[in-house]
Amino acid sequence: MYKVILLYPPPSDPERFRRHYLATHVPLCRKVPGRLRFSYGLGPEALGADSPWFCVFESEFASEAAWRDAMTSPEALAARADVAKFTDRLPTMIAYTMAG
């Protein structure tokens, strides 16, 4: 399994982010082919400190190759293009092959 995590820093307009993310961006992400599952959370908490993140998005694919194929799909390209419509700060992306 291959996991991709997007960590969104706090945007300048949190309410705009939240509204657009839930109404438009998440539905776009649901359409990406090859995805086994995904989840997201708004307002994650850091234990014992202020969180540097406003939103966390996790997505799983059968393999890195499956993820790479999915990212060239029209659906993934539409989701990627949508990011600029709800945040002015790009997310940090972490990707890895799951072990264990």
Describe the protein in words.
- By secondary structure, the chain is of the alpha+beta class.
- The protein has one domain (2-11, 24-97): Alpha-Beta Plaits (2-Layer Sandwich).
- Helix content is 34%, strand content 28%.
- It contains 3 helices and 4 strands.
- It has a 4-stranded antiparallel beta sheet with strand order 2-3-1-4.
- It starts with a strand and ends with a strand.
What's the arrangement of secondary structure elements?
Elements: E1 2-8, H1 14-30, E2 35-42, E3 55-61, H2 64-71, H3 74-82, E4 92-97
Mean pLDDT: 95
Q: What distance lies between the first and last C-alpha atoms, to the nearest angstrom?
A: 10 Å
Structural class: alpha+beta
User: Total strand count, please?
Assistant: 4
Beta-strand content estimate? 25-35%
The number of domains is 1
Overall geometry: globular
* Percent helix range: 25-40%
In the CATH hierarchy, the third-tier topology is known as Alpha-Beta Plaits
Helix/strand order, N-terminal first = EHEEHHE
Strand order of the largest sheet: 2-3-1-4
Q: Helical segment tally? A: 3
